[in-house]
Write a structure and sequence with these properties.
- The structure holds two protein chains of two kinds.
- Chain A is mainly β.
- Helices cover about 0% and strands about 50% of the residues of chain A.
- In chain A, the strands form two sheets. In chain A, strands 2, 4, 5, 6, 9, 10 and 11 form a seven-stranded mixed beta sheet that branches.
- Chain A is globular and about 40 Å long.
- In chain B, about 0% of the residues lie in helices and about 55% in strands.
- Chain B has no helices and twelve strands.
- In chain B, the strands form three sheets. In chain B, strands 2, 5, 6, 10, 11 and 12 form a six-stranded mixed beta sheet that branches. Chain B has a four-stranded antiparallel beta sheet with strand order 3-9-8-7, with no helix packed on it.
- Chain B starts with a strand and ends with a strand.
- Classes of the chains: A mainly beta, B mainly beta.
- At the A-B interface, strand 4, strand 5, strand 9 and strand 10 of A face strand 5, strand 6, strand 10 and strand 11 of B.
């Protein structure tokens, strides 16, 4: 069974440009999450989808970040315009319905973003 | 507010020596506790978790952790380090089992030959 897959694995863009990160969750997982790790800091929650609906976006840093999950399958996270402080690793994760596996969420390999 | 503290951003041990990675948390509600590992160029992989029941939890690759409520700790141990254990380890807490994990800053483990 395929795990959570993320694309691109690495991206280098200039300040002011736009980047779109994609995440494909594990097949059948209704819950999809985005987390971020800024260099040297802890991994922080960004938002949570249940199917195509945003359940909680309290961790989104500002309105330069836009997450979508059309059709309840894959998700995209767009950063526009990118700033230097957006550099870091963006992790996507997924989980089945609540309670099925005791709240374990499964992470992807992350998308490394460098803004120069 | 909940938080997780991992003592030591870098830990070095000799091959065959005990591995001890420390994690303390603060939570106003019963937490679920996790250890994740990130090997070079790979994603976050679940090592073990504590939800309820037995406080000593065994995970993959010979790791285990003990939940000590009185000390608000969930330290990760392995009796004998192997070169393949070199990775970054993250402790996380999920207050009342919610999806909003709170992570520590990570501990990078180096295993010396």
């Amino acid at each position: 069974e395929a795990g959570v897959t993320q694309f691109p694995s690495h991206s280098v863009i200039e300040k002011g440009q736009t980047v779109t990160l994609r995440c494909d969750p594990i097949s059948g997982h209704d819950n999809l999450y985005w987390y971020r790790r800024v260099m040297g800091k802890e991994i922080k929650f960004l938002l949570h989808f249940v199917k195509e609906s945003k359940q909680d976006e309290s961790g989104m840093p500002n309105n330069r970040f836009l997450a979508e999950r059309t059709g309840g399958t894959y998700s995209t996270l767009k950063v526009q315009p990118a700033e230097l402080e957006d550099s870091g690793v963006y992790f996507c994760a997924s989980s089945p319905q609540q309670g099925v596996t005791g709240n374990t969420i499964y992470f992807g390999e992350g998308s490394w973003l460098t803004v120069v | 507010a909940q938080s997780v503290t991992q003592l030591g951003s870098h830990v070095s041990v000799s091959e065959g020596a005990l591995v001890l990675l420390r994690c303390n948390y603060s939570s106003s509600v019963p937490p679920y506790l996790f250890w994740y590992v990130q090997y070079p160029n790979q994603g976050l992989q679940l090592l073990l978790k504590y939800t309820t029941g037995a406080t000593l939890v065994k995970g993959i690759n010979g790791f285990e952790a003990e939940f000590k409520k009185s000390e608000t700790s969930f330290h990760l141990t392995k009796p004998s380090a192997h070169m393949s254990d070199a990775a970054e380890y993250f402790c996380a807490v999920s207050p009342s089992g919610t999806y909003k994990y709170i992570f520590g800053t990570g501990t990078r483990l180096k295993v010396l030959a």
